[in-house]
Design goal:
single chain; alpha/beta; Rossmann fold; 2 domains; 16 helices
C-alpha cells in the first residue's frame, strides 16, 4: 500500500529545496505525495512552482499586505490542520525555518501525525537573529520525529538540545541537488535584456540580494551605500540587484540606488534565471540563507550580509565570509575579492560543505525505512 506524504511549503526557497525530495519520494514508488502551499510569499512562490512543475494540491493563500507574524501563524496552523484532518498522511514534511514550518510541525503534533524536518539543526543561538527564523526552527525541532540535518554540525546542535540521536540523519542539503540539476541544463533560462547587457558589458558582475527582516531600516541603507562605493571604486563592476517586493526593501533600495549607471535594479528573477545569473557573475553579496549554500555549489564566493549565520560551515570551509551590514567592512571585503586573484582563487577552490547532490534520494530512503518500521 502506498503511504501518503504531505509536503508543506510557503516560500520560494522552501519549494526549491523540497523539489528534489518530492521527486525522490515519487520515484521511489512507495508513496503518494500531496503538496500543500501556505503561500506566505505568494508571487515568488507561484513563479517557482510553475518553473519546477509542482502544482499544489492544497493552497491556503495566506499572504496579505503588511501581514503580521501572529496572523500568518494562526492562518497556517488552522489551514494545515484542516488538510491533515481531511487527508491524514503517514508523515508530514516541511523544509527550513519559516512560519510555515513551525505551523506544519505544530499542526502535525496536534493530530498525532509524525513530522519530518528537512534542513534541521541550523542554529545561531540568538533567538532574534535571524528573526523569526531562529525560534521557528528551534520550536519545530522539539516537535519533529525525523530530523534531516544537512551537516554534522547541525546534528551536533540537535544533540546538545537533547534530541534522540536515532532520530537525526545527516543527509546534506537538497538545495545542492536543485542547483546541480538546473545548472546542468543545456538551455539556460532567457534573461531580461538589461541583465544580459550588464553581464556582457561588466568585467566583474556582482549579484546582490537582501530581504531579511533584521536588515530593514538602517542596515539595508548601509548595504546600499556600500554598493555605491564599490561601484565607484571599481569601474569593472556592474551590480545586478533583484529587488524583493516587500516595501521595506523596495522603498530604500529604489531611493538610494535607483538610476545609478552601473547598478541595475530589477524585478525578482525566477529560479532558473537566478541560478544562471549566479553562474555568470564574479561575486555574490547576500543576506539569504539559501544563497550561502547555492553559491558554493556553483563555485562563486559569497559575502554574507548578516551579523550572524546559522550556516557556519561555509565560513569555516572558506566558501563564504560574514561581513554583516557595516558599510566599511562590506566595501573592504568586496574590493579585496574583486582586486586580488589570489584571495578570489582561495574561495573558489574551497570545498562545498553542504552536500553532493544526492540528498533527495537519501531522505526518501530514510522515510521508507521509518514508515515501514512504523506500520
Amino acid at each position: 500500500m502506498m503511504r501518503r506524504i504531505l509536503a508543506v511549503f510557503g516560500t520560494r526557497p522552501e519549494a526549491v529545496k523540497m523539489w528534489p525530495v518530492v521527486d525522490a519520494l515519487r520515484a521511489d514508488g512507495s508513496f503518494q505525495v500531496r503538496l500543500l502551499a501556505t503561500a506566505q510569499h505568494r508571487d515568488m512562490l507561484d513563479d517557482v512552482l510553475r518553473v519546477l512543475d509542482m502544482p499544489p494540491d492544497h493552497d491556503l493563500n495566506v499572504m496579505t499586505e503588511n501581514q503580521k507574524l501572529a496572523d500568518v501563524t494562526a492562518q497556517c496552523v488552522t489551514g494545515i490542520d484542516r488538510v491533515l484532518r481531511e487527508e491524514p498522511p503517514a508523515l508530514a514534511l516541511a523544509e527550513g525555518d519559516t512560519t510555515t514550518v513551525l505551523a506544519a510541525a505544530l499542526a502535525a503534533y496536534y493530530n498525532r501525525i509524525p513530522f519530518g524536518h528537512v534542513e534541521a539543526g541550523l542554529r545561531t543561538e540568538d533567538k532574534y537573529a535571524p528573526f523569526p527564523e531562529e525560534m521557528n526552527r528551534r520550536l519545530a525541532g522539539a516537535l519533529t520525529d525525523l530530523h534531516f540535518a544537512p551537516t554534522q554540525r547541525a546534528r551536533e546542535n540537535l544533540l546538545r538540545e537533547g534530541i534522540a540521536p536515532e532520530t537525526i540523519h545527516v543527509c546534506g542539503n537538497p538545495v545542492v541537488d536543485a542547483v546541480q540539476r538546473i545548472a546542468s541544463r543545456d538551455t539556460p533560462a532567457p534573461l531580461p535584456a538589461a541583465i544580459e547587457a550588464l553581464l556582457t558589458r561588466a568585467a566583474r558582475p556582482v549579484l546582490v540580494t537582501a530581504h531579511r527582516r533584521e536588515s530593514f531600516g538602517v542596515p539595508l541603507e548601509s548595504v546600499c551605500q556600500a554598493l555605491r562605493e564599490i561601484a565607484a571604486a571599481d569601474l569593472g563592476v556592474g551590480v545586478i540587484f533583484p529587488v524583493h517586493p516587500n516595501p521595506n526593501v523596495r522603498g530604500p533600495v529604489t531611493t538610494l540606488l535607483g538610476g545609478h549607471e552601473r547598478i541595475l535594479l530589477c524585478e525578482p528573477l525566477n529560479y532558473l534565471q537566478f541560478i544562471h545569473v549566479m553562474k555568470r557573475v564574479h561575486l555574490i553579496l547576500s543576506d539569504s540563507g539559501g544563497v550561502q549554500e547555492e553559491a558554493p555549489s556553483l563555485r562563486k564566493p559569497v559575502l554574507v550580509l548578516r551579523e550572524k549565520t546559522e550556516r557556519p560551515e561555509g565560513i569555516a570551509a572558506g566558501v563564504a565570509r560574514l561581513v554583516g551590514t557595516d558599510r566599511e567592512r562590506i566595501v573592504r571585503e568586496a574590493l579585496r575579492l574583486l582586486g586580488s586573484a589570489e584571495e578570489y582563487g582561495r574561495m573558489v577552490a574551497a570545498t562545498n560543505p553542504y552536500g553532493d547532490g544526492q540528498t533527495g534520494p537519501r531522505i526518501a530512503a530514510i522515510i521508507r525505512g521509518y514508515l515501514g518500521a512504523a506500520r
